[in-house]
Design goal:
439 residues, mainly alpha
Length: 439
Amino acid sequence: MTKPREFFRYILLHVASMLGLSCYILADTFFVAQSLGADGLAALNIAIPVYSLINGSGLMLGTGGAVRYAVCMGRGNRDEAAQALYHTLLLAVPLCAVFLLMGLFFSGDLALLLGAQGTLCPMTQVYIQCLLLFSPAFLLNQIVGAVVRNDGAPQLATLAMLSGSFSNIILDMVFLFVLGMGMFGAVLATCLAPIISLLLLSLHRRSLRRRQHPWRWENRQIQPAVWRTVLATGLPAFFTEISSGVVILVFNFLFLGLLGPVGVAAYGVIANLSLVACAMMTGVAQGMQPLISRAWGRENRQDMQRVLRWSLMAVLFLAILITAGLWAGASPVVQAFDTEGNRALQQIATAGLPLYTLGLPAAGINIVLAMFFAAREKPIPAQGITLLRGLVLIIPLSCLMAACWQATGVWLSFPVSEGFTLLVGFVWYQKGKGKQKQP
């Protein structure tokens, strides 16, 4: 049975980990803007979809493999747990091969396809090519980190994540400002981060040897059913990562048509703040996942409901706290991002921030519910919630509400789509409870 102390240990570690990750992304963007100016920042933004594709693939394999691993360990079947890890790593091989081929031969074409023009092309190509060539490190880091977290070592997984993130910040400063390496230095710092994280995660292997853990893979047979389970369980994480990039593109387009470039800049401020808030709430969901998967493997439904209830309370507390803080400090928060003193940007962002952040409590609950279903190897409701909030609802709603209420409609499309998704998620949850009660 999960005790409150164990629950809070998992939650706090993962919230800290996700907060560190989101802060390093903000710092990375800041250093590129300071060192390379508007062109560097534009090239970085153009290359983001490639990073989302690589990171989303790693999250898919890491989440799917870790859930299967935790469920098998909860049932006391260590051999099947090792089998899950083995098949997850095998899935990464063809993905890495595709990414490497793209990096070697098609990075320039990708830069053009994503919209790089003129002087932006060389910087964008360098960034994309380096990301693709280091893709095995990104994928392996996500897989190993997720499995270590589910193998009873959340502290090590968090330490590895934070070490990689903060090393990126330090290396950014060295490569950009001390060595003057330009865009190659910026992307090299990003690509070295997962390698540093993996070096720390390797310490877990020594612990396993002392415990004689069966991570040996001799004479293992290929089982396609394990691949199907891993992919189905991990797809929500992939869709979440990919859809966020698509939504940003759609919102940029809408604000560009309604308010011009200053509207896009104002949305960029709020999008970054929302990124940090959602990352913290995702940390709650990730901390919950090993506990839910373990209870599911042991068929302890009472423990699952207890952990879910605690997680919902934690994510609501975070969401309300963040929302209240942003409402109270909207003006100074926006000014902190506006180094040029653009009054129009400040007015747009200050007006939009309270409207947009209305959706954070519902978003937090949706994130936890999607992970709750995924942790129990229920891919359909998990993928359904993820797709509804990430693509299916918010894109048409934002376009429709923009036509009706201009910029106000765009801001409100986020809370409206999250609210509708919450209703659907609640129906799925109630149906699941009904099936559990049937004899």
